[in-house]
Amino acid sequence: MISARQHLFRLTLLLALFALGGCSAVDTVQGWFGKSGAVEPAKLQDFAETAKFEVRWHADVGSSGANVLQPALTADAIYGASGDGMLTRIDRASGKQVWRIESGITVSGGVGAGEGLVLIGSNKGDVLAYDEDGKLRWKSKVSSEVLSTPQAADGIVVVRSGDGRIAGLDTSDGKRVWEYERSTPALVVRSHAGVTIQRGVAFAGFAGGKLAALKVKDGSVLWENSVSQPRGNTELERISDITSNPVADDEQVCAIAFQGRVACYDAAQGSPLWNRDIGSDKGMMLLRKYLYLTDANGSVMALDKVSGSTLWKNEQLFMRDTSIPYAIGNFVVAGDYEGYLHGLSREDGSFAARIRLDGAIQAAPQQLDDGLLVQTRDGDLYSLSLK
Which regions span the lipid bilayer (predicted)? Predict the structure, then answer.
């Protein structure tokens, strides 16, 4: 049996090859290695439930296809997209469809919502902006495929393309206001990493472990820093790309690199606060005093935000392609490649509840009122409570 580190190296090789070939990577563990792969996902163990998931409503927005798509929430609506171009508005209270339109593109990035716009991106670099009634406001073009969610703030739509460039588009007409680009290593991991906007600043991680803070209004660089330095004897071993969105609050910003480190910085100045040797291709959630993350092996962890020390770690989701965790109430919630949604205790990481949904859960769960909103790869949208 190969080790987890060898498995990670093989996964890096596959992702790098997909990046070079311009293909879409397979997103599940079984997809990477097949059913007879040497590294098997952990089998789920029975446990005594201390809480329960309940489905409040269920809707269908269409399959995401090969990309990771997530819904967008506004005050009274939820917007979901399918990979084949359908954009759907759903009433957030009842789950009933309000409208559905055909965008005419292959949706690879989205859905974003803000400044009165609903935003999606295509595999050919198209960015489409609709109003909340489903009317197309404008269509723009960026340098390559859009693999992450476009975001709107301060009169600017911030779009990250697959070549690592970030464009700032005017919310009124889609015209380019600014563009940020940086040199990239010879080999990079194809990822769905986007940007995180906090108080007028867009934080973005890049190939080679770099983290940058950009002013949303004009794209000017406020600071840059290195989350992780490439290590190893070969180019593949030296890949340390940041393949997920940074997380930020008013005080600090944190990012995690694939095959690298997790590090936190002062949000205003970019000065280092702490770092640890933990790698992840999924991402993190920052909530008050705590940082929740899924590491490269699928384990869910809780770290102290100030020091980076481990508070607890649940290793029972080993290699289950565990999603980004989401903390809500007394629980931390994460999905897996078989469609199971796991509720863990925020106190010690032990299992508290579990439910199986239709389709793999790739996108991070989101908060919907006093419960959760989850979209599966098959396009099923669930509103759930956890008590």
Answer: none
- Counting runs of H as helices and runs of E as strands, what totals does the chain give? 2, 32
User: What's the first-to-final CA gap in the chain, in angstroms?
Assistant: 40
**pTM across the whole model:** 0.89
305 CB-side CA count, 13 A: 18
Nearest to 12 by CA among 190, 236, 274: 236
Binning pLDDT at 50, 70 and 90, where does residue 6 land? very low
With tokens 């629980």, the residue in question is 331
Average pLDDT over residues 216-231: 90
Distances, alpha carbon 326 to alpha carbons 11, 55, 118, 351, in Å: 25, 17, 23, 14
Q: Which domains does the chain have, with CATH numbers?
A: 25-60+312-387 (2.40.10.480), 69-181 (2.40.128.630)
- Contact call for residues 181 and 219 (beta carbons, < 8 A): no
Of the pLDDT bands very low, low, confident and very high (cuts 50, 70, 90), residue 66 is confident
